[in-house]
Amino acid sequence: MLALPVLGFAQGHSMDDVRFTGPLLTPGPAAMPQGEFFAQPYWIYSRTRGVYDDHGDRHTLDAHDSSQLLSLLLSGGITDRLTGELVLNGSRSAHGAEHSDGYRIGDSATRLRYQLRTGDGLTGGMTMAVMLSQSLATGRHDRLGENTFNGQGSGVYRTSLSLLGQQVLWLPNGRPLRWRWQTTWSPSPGSVSVVGRSVYGTEQGFRGTLAAGAAVSGALGLEYSINRSWALALDLTASTQSGSVLEGSVADASGQRKTQRQDGSRSRAFSIAPAVEYIINDQIGVLMGVQASLPGGRNSASYVSPQVSMTMTF
């Protein structure tokens, strides 16, 4: 960001030899033309090596947690300014020698993105949009029986509102740097019913609710176009969420129910995600990179997450 003042707008440049897939994490604000469709599958492998405590100190885990996520983003132009999106997820997780029974359905999401302002890559005008997101609790989170690793959902229906922007700046060597940003606010969703063994650590016989906290996040994405086929990308993200409250009761050996309550602490997390973009043609591109947590987290995971994605426009 300190380098941005030395950048300028296009003077006799052309976007004809410039193509991007988009970075790994930060979504773009541009609307899809009406009737056009876009698909982006992801394969993401995550390995959690430690956790940050309430003071920001990192502790190494005795046994690493790992997961594989298959995610599919589907987008379609409803109008020339309004884009609808659907995100589908399936994942497999493991802790040491224990693991889920194959891939399980995770939570999904729907999005509506409305483009407020259309930018111009040659004049430096910024494209801006608002986005409304709704997570869908399609993955299991409770009543998990003997294998709690089969729980790949949260049970939470979370609504989020985002503001997005994107701008193209030109470097002295004549190549463009595209940067985009996103800020997201999500109020605390309603309470979630939790019964039996769950992803929240409850045991058989538990009955109660979970009240998740409000969340705020931000992301910055940078893309540098090397030539028509190659680009370099980098994402930086930050997020914070207020503490959750899990309360309910569980039966003891005599059948009497005892009240339980667990107050979760506020969390925060930072990450970085460098990537390489290879654009095959105007319809197909490939994106390869790795996301990793950064120091400064609180009550969050320390992880490394290589991932591969493909973009396809129809």
Characterize the structure shown.
By secondary structure, the chain is an all-beta fold. It has a single domain (4-13, 23-313), classed as monomeric porin ompg (Porin), CATH 2.40.160. Helices cover 0% and strands 57% of the residues. It is built from no helices and 18 strands. The strands form two sheets. The chain has a twelve-stranded antiparallel β-barrel. A hairpin with a 5-residue loop joins strand 14 (245-251) and strand 15. The protein is elongated. The model is unreliable at 1-6 (pLDDT under 50).
What would you say about this model in short?
It contains no helices and 18 strands.
Query: By CATH's scheme, which homologous superfamily applies?
Result: monomeric porin ompg
Oligomer: single chain
Give the CATH topology.
Porin
Poorly predicted segments: 1-6
The number of helical runs is 0
Largest sheet: number of strands, sense, barrel closure: 12 strands, antiparallel, barrel
Please identify, by name, the CATH architecture: Beta Barrel
Fold blueprint:
Blueprint: E1 37-52, E2 58-77, E3 82-95, E4 98-99, E5 104-105, E6 108-117, E7 127-136, E8 159-170, E9 176-186, E10 192-195, E11 207-211, E12 215-225, E13 230-241, E14 245-251, E15 257-263, E16 267-279, E17 284-293, E18 300-313
Antiparallel strand pairs: 1-2, 1-18, 2-3, 3-4, 3-5, 3-6, 6-7, 7-8, 8-9, 9-12, 10-11, 11-14, 12-13, 13-16, 14-15, 16-17, 17-18
